[in-house]
Amino acid sequence: MRILFFSHYYEPEVNAPASRTAEHCRAWVAAGHDVTVVTSAPNHPQGQVYPGYRNRWFQTETIAGVRVVRIWTLLAANEGFARRIFNYLSYLTSAIVALPRLPKADVVVSTSPQFFCGLVGLFAGPYKRAPWALEIRDLWPESIVAVGAMRKGRAIRFLEWLEGFAYRRADAVVSLTRSFVPHIAERRGTAKGVVVFSNAADLGAFVRSGDGGAVRRALSLEGKFIGAYVGTHGMAHGLTTILDAAEILKDDPRFAFLMVGDGAERPRLEEARAKRGLANVLILGQRPKSEMPGVWSATDASLILLKRSDAFKKVLPSKMMEAMAMRCPIILGVEGEARDVLEEANAGIAIPPEDASALAAAMRSLADDPKRAAAYGGAGRAYADAHFDRAEVAARYLRFLEDVAARRPIREARRDAATRSAAE
């Protein structure tokens, strides 16, 4: 089968969309399929092209058997709003312009967010005469209203109309969470063709190795109970909560907070940390993916946080799967489906979103009861083995795409048959 996949992000970028897409595509190539990914020059989150790459109109490379086509975009850091919108629109435009140069496909997949990347399938599916599967990683534009990036108004109403139009036109919709399905079905007019393939983790790569002694020594954190936030430092995450909790615990030498990643909020967080004199907080910035198992191994509690919003009750953060795979107990400041999964897995402590006192209390609770913390970690790994194995999710996703490809519209098949007859 020939799979044409549109993703704004791809490796060597290390954010969740890039990792999910790359791991799935590598698995599909290993299963004997032809996979082409259409993406940007790697530049997330700073909007600066990675060394060894250029922001050109059309360039190709092969990564782990996947053909990667990189197209020009107006580069933008993962902050602000207007320039990022133009960045997203430029991807849509460049992808449409590139369609004649892209290979034939049996199925087209486009992933959202970003929203306009998802919309590429509206054009690519008909152009390639292939069915289109739209992957929904986040509910957009609902999520941008939730973080305050845009207010309700005509622009949002137009985007909501466009969202519903895309759901209805897609031959299939892939949701990352169960909670998204009612929203998608309402706007699609039916739940038919909607399937859930959650985020997952590479269970072979995410294996805990001791207590991350090398990382602890490098950071001068030997003997500390480390609460770590690993991921994007964005508007949605409410990471000031970590600074507030660190201030509560600043006189207790047992505790340290580690923040690993990058994003729009990182400069503000660094400034606030320095202004408040929080020596128990380390902000490391983005690190290569190869370093992450060591960081996770040094982590005593994984901090997974979002702002308080009804929109985020539908979200299932990918960091949960990685933490579970690494046997790391979770302190979860997210309501809704994420909390349901945490409690079902018995993998950690749920706290109210943006509650620094509860975060500090959860840190104390885990530090005071190592056996309980270890039990949470073991239960999380068992749950990940059963539900969040990337290889298994990729295999089920592939079977679904094979089914979508097999349900090509009859009129298209008849047109192909007529074309072959005329040629003969």
What keywords describe this structure?
424 residues; alpha/beta; Rossmann fold; 2 domains; 8-stranded mixed beta sheet; 6-stranded parallel beta sheet; 17 helices; globular; disordered C terminus
Helix content: 40-55%
How many helix segments? 17
Low-confidence stretches: 410-424
How many domains?
2
Mean pLDDT: 89
| Fraction in beta strands | 15-25%
CATH architecture of the largest domain: 3-Layer(aba) Sandwich
Largest sheet: 8 strands, mixed
- What overall form do the CA principal axes indicate? globular
Verbal overview:
The longest helix is centred in the C-terminal third of the chain and has 18 residues, at 370-387. Helix 9 packs across helix 14. The strands form two sheets. This protein has an eight-stranded mixed sheet. It has a six-stranded parallel sheet with strand order 11-10-9-12-13-14, with helices on both faces. The chain is built from 17 helices and 14 strands. It folds into two domains: 2-200 and 389-423, Glycogen Phosphorylase B (Rossmann fold); 213-387, Rossmann fold. It has helices spanning 16-30, 82-98, 115-118, 120-128, 142-146, 154-169, 180-188, 213-218, 240-248, 266-276, 292-297, 318-325, 337-345, 356-368, 370-387, 390-406, 410-423; strands spanning 2-6, 34-40, 58-63, 66-71, 107-112, 132-136, 172-175, 194-196, 225-230, 255-260, 281-285, 301-305, 330-333, 348-350. By secondary structure, it is of the alpha/beta class. The radius of gyration is 22 Å and the shape is globular.
